[in-house]
Amino acid sequence: MMEGNVLFAFLLTLLAGLATGIGSAIAVVSKKTNTKVLSLALGFSAGVMIYVSMIEILAKSFDVLQHEFGHSGGWVVLCSFFGGIACIGIIDALVPSAENPHEVQRVENMPLPATSREQQLMRLGLLSALAIGIHNFPEGMATFTAALHNAKVGVPIAIAIALHNIPEGIAVAIPIFHATNSRKKAFAYSFVSGLSEPIGALIGFAILAPFMSQALMGIIFGSIAGIMVFISVDELLPAAIKFGQHHMSIAGFVAGMFVMAVSLVMMQ
Fold this sequence. Notes:
Number of strands: 0
Structural class: mainly alpha
Number of domains: 1
Order of helices and strands: HHHHHHHHHH
Number of helices: 10
């Protein structure tokens, strides 16, 4: 049974990570970015991630850690939650702002390169792929751990992560496509950048599996909640609003919370 759960959690994480390939396909095929759809999708993803983090995952962390440590469990949850935020925040700070994949580019705004700019564009694309890989590593661990513990929670988290990986795929594919004029290369680099999520899941599982306990699981859940809240408020909502579709992003955000709330109630 455990092997089946591990395989299911890994497949979910793999599919979520490889959603960068969808973004790359959009980048090399589309002549114009559909800002309404992207704003809606990013807002929806943020709504799902914030709601499930605060209502389900953090609550589970409280239950487990208070059972293990009594009254002190609340402090462990607090440290776990803000520790997760600090971890992803440090990773974010280490990525140079010029190559930060959070700076989502519109397809129509990237000019065709002159020969002298090809190397710069290629460098931008490769650095974006590397930066996305670094950011996606803890996301992979979060998705995998949540799905391993509770598939009903893991599925919506994987969907939310997949949605937010689409514009990251665009950020990699656009400069590489215009540097090489090759759709295959743009798609390949973007697609491969998403592999960091399942790799992060496998490495995290290999490291933590021998030490897994109820207390460690509670700490992991608290950290996951912090990571996903940070991703939502630092990446998803600003990117959605940046497209100039403020109401669409808020509509998506509310819809994401509503869908997550209804699904959690139905799964009880």
